[in-house]
Write a structure and sequence with these properties.
The complex is a heterotrimer of chains A (about 150), B (about 240) and C (about 750).
Chain A lengths: L2 E5 L2 E5 L7 H7 L18 E4 L2 E4 L12 E3 L5 H13 L9 H14 L5 H8 L10 H10 L4
Parallel strand pairs in A: 1-5
Antiparallel strand pairs in A: 1-2, 3-4, 3-5
Chain B lengths: L1 E6 L4 H10 L3 E3 L4 H5 L3 E6 L9 E2 L3 E5 L4 H6 L5 H7 L5 H6 L2 H7 L5 H8 L3 E4 L3 E4 H7 L7 E7 L4 E7 L6 E8 L2 E5 L6 E3 L8 H4 L13 H18 L7
Parallel strand pairs in B: 1-3, 2-3
Antiparallel strand pairs in B: 4-5, 5-8, 6-7, 6-8, 9-10, 10-11, 11-12
Helix pairs in contact in B: 4-7
Chain C lengths: L11 H5 L15 E7 L5 E7 L1 H5 L3 E5 L30 E2 L5 E7 L2 H9 L2 E6 L36 E9 L2 H7 L2 E9 L11 E6 L5 E5 L4 H11 L7 E4 L16 H11 L3 E4 L2 H7 L5 E10 L5 E13 L5 H10 L10 E10 L13 H19 L3 H8 L8 H5 L16 H11 L2 H4 L2 E5 L2 E11 L9 E8 L5 E5 L8 H13 L6 E5 L16 H28 L5 E3 L2 E4 L2 E4 H10 L7 E7 L7 E11 L5 E11 L6 H21 L29 E5 L22 H13 L10 H9 L1
Parallel strand pairs in C: 1-12, 10-11, 14-15, 19-20, 26-27
Antiparallel strand pairs in C: 1-5, 2-4, 2-6, 3-5, 7-15, 8-13, 9-10, 9-12, 13-14, 16-17, 17-25, 18-19, 18-24, 21-22, 22-23, 25-26
Classes of the chains: A alpha+beta (about 150), B alpha+beta (about 240), C alpha+beta (about 750).
Chain lengths: ~150, ~240, ~750
């Protein structure tokens, strides 16, 4: 089955296997920011945005992405840089493996929530695991970036 | 999960035809639990374009089977207990993908939303089997595979949901839901059961005295009971009910 | 210029923006996919293994089993050579000793082809009885390593016929006699579990032949030089034919210190000539890599009525699983990195056996030994205070290590060998304790406050110490070269696994060279291009590798001045902040270096430095926690965790802080959430992130990490280590807080809510 996969506003003719997941397709297409952390949809490391919604790319069948707009960190360089500036200013990037998924989650959060509280932000990001940082520094960074009271 | 093909049928009739003609064909909901199965499917049937993901609010509330758990979480016109029940099912990304239809169809005993739907006495509408109560389906399932179209229920005057999770996004060790004076308890770890005409002025211990709990490596039945009593006590308190002090 | 600055990690922005930088990102596009068939049995002998159908399967390049790979015994521990770990491992074994042990390695073009081929391998197992309970392993009839060539490189108390991978014993003074003389003796037994590292990047290895037919391995390792040595020796390759590159690593915490998939990809490339890559599934990471050592700790602490602690005795049973990586060192550290905290004792006893079981091996893990030992010791001190009816704070203050003091233990116990005597030149435990208790409002809350009908708040705390590298073993080195335009390349063997060590080493170089950090370009961990370093473990990078960088940088400064003398034709040359001056003349490093290459006394300036520690100054910390307990359910909310740390100079205060915050949360995870449940067959139920629960951000209500002013004279610019110390306190601090809340001691990790509930009810 051929699909029209739209990644970061570019169109690709793509022939996914029926059981191929988006993470595999995106990495094959060269979007190496998308990382695989688990096999059980549990860690949020592979998060991307499909049609405006945050999803785990490890569990989204590529076949179901026909004509859908997929966004990875590579597709939001300015926004990603903005977020990265705040994260790195706290030194909380650490190993960085969960960072692209975390950036996508923050991006989705900013699109979706208006003037969120820290509790709402934490709830939104709860599915994004980080083993290095202990999270607190991430929250300091986000608090500054989003000017949360 | 392995699959030989994925199809997008042009009608539900066609989808149903494939579903029952192939032993290892299945309807895709959000596809999350499907992914974890070690099964080899001949056909994955993607009906997302044929099934509703709409929430209709009225005296009777109906929710299309493809509605995401995230939409259920954020639609504040839905009963509060239903919003609460999905809030800690994994993260936002998972809830964006996971559908109410997938949760219900799978009859997962640990499901937080299923317990709420049992409390709400929801009615399920299947493509072939027609209407069947959530409670009956939950106990017995269906004889044949089918396509779930819609979940509906009468809007309750009051509803609430609570659970215990070791960490925020974990599966529940116990969950409970209240709809008016019905109480449902799930993740016991057995399938949810319900108590009707509950007198919430009684103590949680009394209310739950007949409820059976089970043990697994996550927790003993005695502990599940203790958790359930405490959660119920807190629910009754938020309902403005009795509470010591 | 560089030290004690909160600068960004040099690779931070790029990584957050998703630049390809990790092992799999750098794999050749046509790399063969390598996957592993693993044992479904905890203990079994392979009677026959038929791979013919798999080999004939579409897309398959090669299949390996025990029958066609090297049968050399080795240790995959990834430690200094010779290793203090038994040589009990082989690449592939005829005997499977745990569920998850590799049975066959298959390489093919596409992943689904490899999966299909693996399904076609027919293995006939003779299932053997297994030992799954480490408390019955010693002297058990079932011998896990017998007649398999298992040996040790030197005396480590290795008795495979008794199922003992390593054992150790020491005594200072007479424990027995001293205990008799004590007014009060506390005895307790503590258990800790086999925690999983749960780094987000699964173990990943890539290999290929380069244009010189040399085997290149790109791998997610903490020890590239050990990988080169172990892979080369085991596969009978001259080390000159092997290059190991460590790219960016998605977390290690000790889990990537040992060898994992490196052999498999290397064998495939050697056999096929093709590039190969092996990425562990998350299940493989859980079952097929290794865990923290599960332990049982028996502790006795004796004191006089006045609160002077006379004697501490610790007896440990440690579970190393099927193989003995780090068996001895983890055991010893449980004593050597805890017992010196109370150095005024008359007698100290420490002994332990590390037993084999048919479970996933145990290995290196951040804070190894120390976190287990600390749980027992710091719980015991609180218990002793209760018995003595003395404030635990006063008891600790009276007995704890102080600056200028020493402990005999330093000399007797090292890591896998004898230790090194040292006087503690920096120890701000008192300051840490004071500040921690103040921030915690300890005396306002202690022991508990009822805040609602079913809610109790309480506080607890623990002291901790670590080390800074292993003296006379851990070695780091650095090379610095000056470039035109006046910037430097800093090449280090040190291994940045996400800790930010590239950055802090650049800061140390910048400080010594008196230039902005941007002038230092770091390249690390490539066995061809960077000098030797033992690797990222034992809290050694800042202290040991950092020292080598300082030495190299200072030599470079000398070289610059020397070259400047030629330029000015004078002896009186000064170098200050990137400018050479001679009387009233001056030249910037930028202009000078360009001349050095193109027009005048042409010369490449290079300097190197290497360093081996002669001591291992401990960083110290006090960790305190405020909790709220629901007395109906035993649920514990961690409201605030306060850590005050003495790690000497913080080279980068931001990165040091995150090291501690991250370590605390890993420690909290081990203490409260990270359950290991093994079935009767030896199967690990919790082998996915769906079942193995590391803390989410919602469990972490508030962390408060600060550093006290401290300067370690032996460290680079006053620094000690900071990578591990943060993980040590949560078990004891939380157990102490719970004791204060409910009056009962919980002595088994993890502390599940159900255990607290049971304890309240009992």
């Amino acid at each position: 089955m051929k699909i029209n996969l739209i990644v970061n506003h570019n169109h690709y003719d793509y022939y996914p296997r029926p059981d191929e997941y988006l993470i595999e397709s995106l990495r094959k297409l060269g979007f190496q920011s998308v990382k695989k952390g688990c096999d059980t949809t549990s860690c949020g490391v592979c998060s991307v945005i499909v049609d405006g919604q945050l999803v785990p790319s490890c569990s989204y069948l590529t076949s179901r992405c026909d004509q859908k707009e997929v966004l990875t960190v590579e597709g939001i360089p300015e926004e990603a840089r903005h977020i990265a500036e705040f994260i790195t200013a706290e030194g909380v990037d650490q190993c960085g493996f969960c960072s692209p998924g975390h950036v996508m989650a923050i991006h989705a959060l900013k699109l979706e929530l208006k003037n969120p509280t820290m509790e709402e932000i934490k709830h939104y990001l709860a599915g994004n695991m980080c083993r290095c940082s202990g999270y607190e520094g991430q929250h300091r960074a986000i608090k500054k970036m989003m000017e949360v009271e | 999960m392995k699959a030989d093909r994925i199809v997008k049928p042009s009608s539900l009739e066609q989808a149903y035809e494939i579903l029952i003609s192939e032993k290892s064909a299945t309807i895709l909901g959000g596809g999350l639990f499907l992914r974890l199965q070690k099964k080899h499917f001949t056909t994955l049937i993607d009906c997302s374009h044929l099934l509703s993901s709409e929430i209709l609010i009225g005296d009777v509330i109906s929710i299309g089977s493809m509605t995401s758990l995230r939409d259920i979480e954020t639609n504040l016109s839905l009963p509060k207990g239903l919003n609460q029940s999905v809030k800690q099912i994994s993260g936002v990304g998972v809830r964006n993908l996971a559908t109410i239809g997938g949760s219900v169809y799978g009859r997962y005993p640990f499901s937080d939303i299923n317990t709420m739907l049992v409390a709400l006495d929801a009615t399920l509408t299947f493509f072939n089997s027609g209407k069947i109560s959530m409670r009956k389906y939950n106990e017995e399932g269906l004889k044949e595979k089918d396509i779930l179209l819609e979940i509906s229920f009468r809007a309750p005057q009051f509803s609430a949901s609570a659970f215990y999770k070791k960490v925020y996004t974990d599966f529940s060790l116990i969950n409970l839901s209240v709809s008016n004076n019905t109480l449902a308890i799930g993740a016991r770890p057995m399938r949810p059961i319900y108590l009707e005409h509950v007198d919430f002025s009684k103590s949680p211990k009394e209310i739950l005295s007949e409820v059976e709990f089970g043990s697994d490596f996550k927790g003993s039945k005695e502990y599940r009971r203790a958790l359930c009593e405490a959660r119920l006590e807190d629910l009754i308190y938020t309902m403005g009910g009795h509470h010591e002090n | 210029m560089g030290v004690n600055e909160k600068i960004r990690k040099v690779d931070g922005i790029g990584l957050v923006m998703g630049k390809p930088a990790y092992s799999d990102d750098l794999a050749p596009r046509d790399a063969l996919i390598v996957k592993v068939l693993r044992s479904p049995h905890a203990h079994a002998e392979i009677l026959s293994i038929d791979t013919s159908k798999a080999e004939a399967s579409e897309g398959i390049a090669c299949v390996f089993t025990y029958a066609n790979v090297s049968d050399v015994n080795f240790s995959r521990a990834g430690q200094g050579f010779p290793e203090p770990s038994p040589y009990d491992h082989r690449i592939l074994n005829k005997i499977c000793r745990y569920i998850g042990e590799p049975v066959a390695v298959v390489a093919g073009v596409f992943e689904h082809q490899v999966d299909e081929a693996i399904n076609k391998i027919k293995v006939e197992y003779k299932v053997l009885d297994a030992i799954l309970d480490f408390e019955i392993a010693k002297d058990h009839d079932i011998k896990i390593h017998s007649g398999d060539g298992t040996k040790s490189m030197f005396e480590i108390g290795h008795y495979p016929e008794k199922n003992i991978a390593a054992s150790y014993e020491m005594e200072i003074g007479s424990v027995k006699e001293t205990l008799k003389q004590c007014d009060v003796v506390y005895e307790g037994r503590y258990y800790t579990q086999a925690q999983a590292h749960a780094m987000t990047e699964p173990h990943t290895s890539v290999s290929y032949y380069d244009q010189q037919d040399r085997l290149n391995i790109i791998t997610s390792t903490q020890t590239p030089f050990h990988v080169r040595r172990i892979v080369g020796k085991t596969l009978n390759l001259p080390l000159s034919k092997v290059r190991v590159i460590k790219p960016r690593i998605g977390g290690g915490y000790g889990g990537k210190q040992a060898i994992h998939g490196e052999f498999f990809v290397a064998m495939v490339t050697m056999k096929t000539g093709k590039a190969a890559k092996c990425i562990f599934s998350r299940k493989e990471v859980f079952e097929g890599s290794y865990t923290r050592h599960q332990m049982r700790l028996d502790i006795k602490v004796g004191a006089m009525k006045d609160g002077t602690i006379q004697v501490i005795d610790m007896d440990i049973l440690s579970n190393t699983g099927a193989y003995g990586e780090h068996a001895l060192t983890v055991l010893m550290v449980a004593g050597s990195k805890t017992l010196p905290l109370y150095n005024k004792v008359k007698a100290v006893g420490f002994r332990g056996d590390v037993v084999y079981t048919n479970l996933t091996p145990a290995g290196a893990y951040r804070g190894y030994g120390a976190i287990q030992g600390n749980f027992a010791l710091e719980s015991a001190i609180d218990e002793l205070a209760d018995l003595l009816e003395i404030d635990s704070v006063k008891l600790r203050e009276m007995n704890m290590m102080k600056e200028g003091e020493t402990s005999e233990i330093f000399e007797i116990m090292g890591e896998g060998q004898e230790g090194t005597a040292m006087t503690i030149e920096s120890c701000k435990l008192q300051e840490c304790l004071d500040l921690c208790l103040e921030k915690l409002n300890y005396y306002d809350i202690y022991p508990r406050k009822q805040v609602a009908p079913n809610k109790i708040r309480s506080v607890g705390y623990a002291l901790a110490m670590q080390g800074s590298g292993i003296p006379y073993i851990d070695m780091g080195s650095a090379i610095i070269k000056l470039n035109d335009d006046g910037f430097f390349n800093l090449m280090v063997g040190a291994t940045d696994i996400g800790t930010g060590s590239d950055t802090i080493l650049a800061q140390i170089a910048a400080e010594a060279l008196e230039v902005p950090v941007e002038k230092i370009i770091v390249y690390s961990s490539d066995t061809d291009l960077t000098p030797f370093d033992t690797g990222a473990y034992a809290s050694s990078t800042t202290y040991v590798s950092g020292h080598s960088v300082r030495i190299a940088a200072e030599k470079m400064k000398e070289n610059i001045i020397e070259a400047g003398r030629k330029h000015f034709n004078s002896h009186h040359v000064n170098y200050v902040e990137g400018v050479l001056t001679c009387e009233d003349q001056s030249i910037t490093l930028k202009d000078f270096s360009t001349k050095l290459f193109y027009s005048e006394n042409q010369e490449q300036l290079v300097a190197s430095g290497s360093y081996v520690g002669t001591k291992s100054p401990p960083p110290y910390m006090v960790g305190g926690v405020e909790i709220e307990v629901d007395t109906r359910t035993g649920e514990v909310d961690i409201l605030n965790y306060v850590a005050v740390v003495d790690c000497g100079t913080t080279i980068n205060p931001n990165l040091a802080k995150i090291q501690v915050e991250g370590a605390i949360v890993q420690g909290i995870g081990m203490t409260m959430y990270e359950e290991v449940n093994i079935s009767e067959q030896g199967h690990n139920f919790n082998n996915s992130f769906m079942r193995y629960k590391v803390p989410t951000r919602m469990e972490i209500k508030h962390l408060d990490v600060s550093f006290v002013e401290s300067y370690e004279p032996s460290g680079p610019f006053g620094a000690k280590s900071v990578g591990e110390i943060g993980i040590d306190t949560p078990p004891a601090a939380l157990s102490n807080a719970l004791k204060n809340a409910i009056g009962k001691r919980i002595n088994v990790l993890p502390i599940r809510a159900e255990d607290v509930w049971k304890s309240i009810k009992a």
